[in-house]
What we know:
The protein is built from 13 helices and ten strands. The protein is α/β, with parallel strands linked by helices and 319 residues long. It has two domains: 11-23 and 31-115 and 254-318, D-Maltodextrin-Binding Protein, domain 2, CATH 3.40.190; 117-233, Glycine betaine-binding periplasmic protein, domain 2 (D-Maltodextrin-Binding Protein, domain 2, 3-Layer(aba) Sandwich), CATH 3.40.190. The strands form three sheets. A five-stranded mixed β-sheet has the order 7-6-8-5-9. Strands 3-10-4 form a three-stranded antiparallel β-sheet. Strands 1-2 form a two-stranded parallel ribbon. Helix 1 packs across helix 2 (44-60), helix 1 packs across helix 12 (299-309) and helix 3 runs parallel beside helix 4 (91-103). The longest helix has 21 residues, at 2-22. The relative contact order is 0.20. The structure holds trimethylamine oxide.
Amino acid sequence: MKRNLKLAVASIATSVAMALTLNAHAADVPESDEPIIIVQNNWTSQLVLSNVVGNVLSELGYEVEYVPSDSQLQFTAIANGDMHFQVEAWEGSMKSAFEKAVEEGMVDAGAHEAVTREEWWIPNYVLETCPDATNWEGLNACADQFATAETSPKGRFVGPPADWGKNYADRVNSLEMDFEAINVGQAATLWAELQSAYDRKEPIVLFNWTPNFIESKFEGTFVDFPEPAPECFTDAAWGPNPNATGDCGAPRGGWLKKAAWSGIADTWPKAWSVLQRVNFSNAQIAAAALMVDVDGMSPEEAAEQWAADNADVIAGWVE
Ligand code: TMO
């Protein structure tokens, strides 16, 4: 482990040094001593990859600070310049807050190649007792199988921490489902609930997303809801319930974007050129989560390991 970390640090340093030699403007970096504030959220791939990006900027000579933020309120802070960069903005849970902040001047710093989904999810053994649970109506038909003392006679949906922006109680109401959404306080509770149900093959439906480490550890399936359209949220007549808005799911092929303060380009031009090139694939994000949630590394250790495994990717950003 120690040795891996040393190699990782050495390899970031080498890629950055090579890039600096190639870059005629390198002597001007950092253009400002003001810290670049990178936002951190409360799920593991984000913590790892924000450290990866921050380490690259530090190696280039920038002052970097990490500041935790709520995944919805962060965008206003970035629009205002109170925070500067977010590596992982997810369409399924953050689209509205993201787009509102863009209207207020936040910069959409581009999409990663990763394609994302955030949705209700079941382990595959659930299909043995609830065969049509791959779609919301089939799942709803077996709602009683998911009942707990807290929710009975309704089924329990194990929902995400409240700050992830999705109000599943509204969706349950709009679709008139026999479920109650019970939010967890932190992501680790989602995985603890899943592990304990999985070990006993008990029915469970919980919030999950991809890319994540889950796909390499558990066999399961997202539950299909009506594909969202803008009218789902504005026109009650749209969707399965003619009397309600919000009667749809999250996108099945969602975007993952970077968000930036508009002042980065002028304050730290070289950093801006790097941040614009940062681009993660599904496999790279899943690997980042796995190092923490399965291998038990800290996000900081995982960032070093990730950088060692992806030195060529990082070299492409700092060119
Ligand atoms: C924002 N998240 C990936 C945890 O759904």
